[in-house]
Design goal:
Elements: E1 5-8, H1 18-37, E2 44-47, H2 51-54, E3 59-62, H3 80-97, H4 102-115, H5 119-126, E4 132-134, E5 140-141, H6 146-161, E6 183-184, H7 185-198, E7 215-217, H8 220-244, H9 250-274, E8 277-280, H10 283-295, H11 312-329
Parallel strand pairs: 1-2, 3-8, 4-7
Antiparallel strand pairs: 5-6
């Protein structure tokens, strides 16, 4: 079996069920990789992956180097995908036991997908649900528009097809912004506040939600203290009252306990990203850009993939958040 080029790219759609997206984006990549291993004369294998997802827990400059079979980023053999698959299976089993119809399953799976992305922070903030956030304001978010990642993959194939680089080399290309055009959480916070102040979320009662700048907790310890004082201690008092007054406040206790556990779980999920302390070296990608310019192929590029050209304020205010509003919040 012979293929000159095998290319795989995946993107998450906010209008898609999380279980479907997981099966396509993650398991799909595994299947394509397994297929590529059988192509003994394959020239190029091109696949995209979210940088912050695979590098959480690391610090410093992350270089563009391949990882080999059995090698992991955090020194363990544990795969986060196992936990993700288990989460989805448990949720689907719960819905089946509750005899949920297909419409309800689809809606809940879409909501779960939103919850499992960093954009749920922006959505929760815009809806007035997020009053505080544990985060390092100077943390750099390695953001990149999906079309730039795809265009880089296309250019990698073009450069190799034109033999502009060694056929024997194994190159990892980081397509990110953290080195050449970094955006900090403080910037993202400011842009989100600006957008939802001018374009407030309209709730089910037709009222505009007024947001504040919220409380930024700059360390995990501060977040734990905040939750303990503001929510966990009052909940213990409520549970005590509930036992004294013959379970009069049972439903309130159950709902409050569920909401607090959800917030703590979500915060734990985002902790590696909100306190992320790394940047991604993109020397190989910059060399690729130089080869494209020198060869004259740049004029044929459909989009371009230099992060320096991104105006983050314009992108977040006029493209990214409006896209979330249209496809995730839908108001």
């Amino acid at each position: 079996m012979y293929y000159n080029v095998l290319n795989f790219a995946a993107a998450t759609n906010f209008d898609e069920r999380y279980d479907v997206a997981l099966e396509t984006n993650t398991m799909g990549a595994l299947r394509v990789l397994s297929f590529a291993k059988k192509c003994v004369k394959i020239n190029i294998f091109s696949m995209s992956q979210l940088l912050m997802c695979v590098a959480k827990g690391r610090s410093g400059v992350i270089t563009e180097k391949p990882f080999y079979m059995g090698e992991s980023l955090n020194g363990t053999c544990k795969l986060d995908i196992t936990a993700e698959k288990k989460l989805v299976e448990e949720k689907l089993n719960q819905l089946r036991q509750e005899n949920a119809n297909e419409e309800a399953v689809t809606s809940i799976m879409k909501d779960l997908g939103i919850e499992r992305t960093i954009d749920s922070v922006i959505i929760g903030y815009g809806q007035g649900k997020l009053k505080c956030l544990p985060v390092n304001p100077d943390a750099i978010f390695d953001l990149i528009p999906a079309d730039m990642a795809v265009d880089t993959m296309l250019m990698v194939m073009v450069v190799n097809a034109n033999q502009l680089c060694s056929a024997d080399s194994i190159l990892i290309h980081h397509v990110g912004s953290s080195v050449r055009n970094p955006i900090k959480f403080s910037n993202l916070h400011k842009f989100s506040y600006c957008y939802f102040t001018k374009n407030p979320y309209i709730d089910r009662n037709g009222k505009a939600v007024q947001i504040s700048k919220g409380t930024v907790l700059t360390s995990w310890a501060k977040f734990q203290r905040y939750m303990a004082i503001r929510y966990l201690l009052p909940l213990k008092g409520l549970k005590l009252m509930n036992s004294v007054f013959c379970l009069r406040y049972k439903n309130i206790c159950i709902n409050s306990d569920r909401k607090i556990k959800f917030v703590l779980r979500l915060a734990e999920l985002y902790k590696p990203y909100l306190f992320f302390n790394s940047t991604f070296d993109d020397s190989n990608t910059e060399k690729l850009r130089m080869k494209i310019r020198e060869s004259g192929l740049e004029k044929d590029a459909i989009i371009g993939f230099d992060p320096k050209c991104i105006n983050w304020e314009d992108y977040i205010l006029n493209i990214h958040i409006p896209g979330l509003v249209k496809y995730a919040i839908k108001y």
